Structure to design on (148 residues):
């Protein structure tokens, strides 16, 4: 059937088992069977979902750098992050990618806070030990009463 501005097209009407409505698929390749058209559609739909999730959850495309190497690094790191999250989603029972990403970010923030607190504690301990080493032998009561 000719379609204005496009040329010959093939129409496919299909209803998925979980849906009540019929869907119309249009193809310019009139030689495709319904099964082949659906195979192509599922692959293309998977790519669309991939890019939507990459933009929405992993923030693909938000780099403001003008350097080509930085842009390549941005896309590469986002893809690695997506693969990691998709793997975790598969292993942990199909949790949504957004919730999984938020959980990992919160965990990383918590680790960073714990690491910073530990570093402060190490600095304090180092200062106390240095002070004790400089003042020579001293009993604990004398040290507690000494000025800061």
């Amino acid at each position: 059937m000719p379609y204005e501005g496009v040329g010959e097209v093939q129409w496919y009407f299909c209803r998925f088992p979980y849906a009540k409505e019929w869907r119309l698929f249009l193809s310019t390749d009139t030689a495709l069977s319904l099964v082949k058209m659906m195979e192509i559609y599922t692959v293309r739909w998977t790519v669309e979902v991939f890019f939507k999730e990459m933009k929405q959850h992993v923030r693909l495309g938000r780099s403001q750098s003008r350097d080509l190497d930085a842009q390549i690094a941005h896309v590469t790191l986002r893809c690695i992050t997506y693969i990691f999250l998709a793997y975790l989603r598969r292993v942990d029972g199909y949790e949504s990618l957004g919730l999984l990403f938020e959980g990992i970010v919160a965990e990383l923030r918590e680790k960073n806070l714990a690491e910073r607190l530990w570093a402060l504690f190490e600095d304090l301990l180092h200062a106390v030990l240095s002070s004790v080493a400089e003042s020579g032998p001293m009993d604990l009561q004398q040290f507690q009463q000494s000025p800061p």
Notes: The chain has three domains: 1-32, 40-95, 97-148.
